[in-house]
Amino acid sequence: MKTWALIVDTWREALARCTLLGFMAVSSLFLLILTFALNLDIVDGALAAGTLFGKSFDLPGKSPAIDTVVATGQSVFAGILYVLGVFLAVFATGSQVPNLQRRGTVDLYVTRPIGRTHLLLGRFLGAATLVSANLLFLCGGVFVIISLKTHVWNPRFLAASGLILAVFLSYLGFMYLVGVLTSSTSLSIMLPYALYLFSVPLAAHKRLAAAMDSRLAANVLHALYWVFPKTAEIGRDLTGYVLGKTTLAIVPFATTLAFGVICLAGAVVAFNRKNF
Amino acid sequence: MGAVPATLRENTAVTADVYLNVDAASTVIAVKRLRKEFRHWGRRLLALDGIDLEVRQGEVFGLLGANGAGKTTLVKILLGLARPTSGDVLVRGSSPRRPSARRRIGYLPEGHHYPGYLTGDASLRLFGRLAGVPEKALDTRIPVLLDRVGLGERGRDRVGRYSKGMTQRLGLACALLDEPDLLFLDEPTDGVDPVGRRQIRDILLATRKQGATIFINSHLLSEVERTCDRVAILHQGRVVREGTVRDLTMPTQRFRLRLAEGQAVPAERLEDDGLRVVASDGNLEVEVADLEALNRLVDRLRSDRLLIAEVTPVRTALEDVFIEVVEGDEHGPGSSENGPRTAVHGPGGGR
Question: Interface pTM (ipTM) of the complex?
């Protein structure tokens, strides 16, 4: 019941602060634009190019042409949603921990007969359900709109939304750590954004390190690559996966999740040790 | 304050245990050699400096102190909100850091901030659920408690629209939600009007009657004097005085005589007799050497055919004791031994 109470509280807070509404509004706008965009002649032309006399034609040893066209479009959208979804989700949940730690509020929560770990993880679970629902709306909406238009149902696109959620949860762990340590909403939002952007060029860490004079600097770069989320690799794998070309590489995904778990564990430890 | 004559003390002083009617073994809060130091940018801030304290079952205990004395820090340690630097703290025999030790403990923090997006009713439900109160019990307790604190009609309003006094009442309802046997109240009447204060005082007394122990942290001395059995005065992180309210507010050598309505107070004549007299509105306050002198004064007034309605010994107000203790500690000979203190309040204190 305590966990349920924390999840409900997280949803109420998101509703009251309009973050949920904002997320939904931006998602709805995106879906609306997509709906109109798919009705353009150029899209109809591209779809027609994959059909012959109204039917999909197959080339020996290859996927049906229409499927390839649709999967290509979906992989582009998966890439967009990978960025947009994570950014919106970070924005929607950035104030959670700072609000919890607000003077006069934290006393009310922490003095209840509930462990601090339970309290923080309950809020984490609340944020996870909140963002899952939003991502389901956004990615599910894109999936349904594209599939209805093209009559091609590519389940890999839906699986990709699960991957976006997993990456977000990793960032949420980092946000919780920043929130617990700083109690600042601004930093809880800005630092994950910065990390997201900073981790992209780290994908080229081998090339960058090779161009460096200092061995120490090169090693630091390699270390940062392994420590931080593998944003670029996961993005690349994600779009490739939707296209059906690759299976997901485990190492970037696992190390990204490990980053989130370690950050969340750090947040829990810091929250437990904190004087309020 | 002058020395109290032995006869007066014998007549009026009551030992703490008889007055409190408590079993000394039933200690609810035990604090030993408690120290709390905060570190802030390399500076060490000493908030609590070797506190020893005991609160017993069923008593209303008041913690007094000026702003920054360390009151809030002590309460936060007792509730597991902050860790002690050294020393022992036991609440009902357990460390307050353990969640299970906080069952049936009510807390009304100072300057609390309920989530503004919740209604009064929803706030109580949220914190009741977090306290592990069953849903059915919440269904019955919430309306009763809201009525009891005078918010029966406002339970469905958002807390963000509440006045300060209403929020304070909500905080009290929340503190009572778990039917606590230990209640911590940090400035409970802060921002509440006189009628509300009276209501809060009545609720506290009723809660006490049910056997709860109440720990009040306040700098409103008159409130503490009316409500508490025993008090401790905290100054610069140390307990500088502790005892029952009656012990601390000992009788003085002054007496208040109220004459019957319409009787003129013969203040000038009494002063001629060498008595120190303050007279106003049919009341006479005199300082006498002993009971013999008081009785001579009564005889004198009676011989003048004055009708005496009441004779009351004047006790030192808690405020006088507090100021004496605090100022004495700052200016007294012992003050230099304490060494310079950087600060006396932690992040949560001194509000």
Answer: 0.80
